[in-house]
Structures are given as C-alpha cells and as structure tokens.
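[Q] Does anyone have a clean structure-token version of this?
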Amino acid sequence: MRILGIESSCDETAIAVVVKEGDAFVIEKNLLSSQVDIHAVYGGVVPEVAAREHADHIFPLLEESGIDRHGEGIDVIAVTAGPGLVPALRVGVELGKALAWAWKSGG
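[A] Here you go.
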C-alpha cells in the first residue's frame, strides 16, 4: 500500500509518500517547503499569507514527488485536517479532495 500524505496546517507545506511493508511504514519521499523567512517579517504566522504560500508550493512539491496526474500506485490520500490555521488547512484538504476526485474519474 502506498499513501500520499499532505501537510499544510501552519507555515510548512509538505508532501510525503509512505509505503506499508508488512507491519512497517517506510518513507519513500518526504518533501518540505518552509515559510519561516516570510512570516519572520510579521513576527508570527499570518494565516492568509500561509494559505497563499501553500497554494504556490503544493503543486511543485507534488510534481517533485513523482506522483503522476493519474495517481498511479497511490492507494490512500492522507491530509492534515487539524489542528491548524483554517485557511492553510483548507489548501491541503482541497488538494486531497481534488486528487481523489480526479483519480476516481480517470483524469
């Protein structure tokens, strides 16, 4: 079983692919894009800025992970649903829903 993990709860965007081998889970890919420098200017994380940054970085990370647009070989999509910043979480959740819909419909 191969699992696509999507993380967008705060100020880091992450994509991971995890493979279940017997009773163990093995990390196949783990990609991260940090927003630390962007939010340092504000003295903390700004939810709307974080969400825009997630939207800008999540597709390049997905592409870099090597997952094709048909989801070949992916059995499960796991997405951080909380806790976190609602605008930031929404980016990851909507990506997961869109991928599941596209893969289910063949496209």
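[Q] Thanks! Anything notable?
[A] Strands lie at 2-7, 12-21, 24-34, 76-79.
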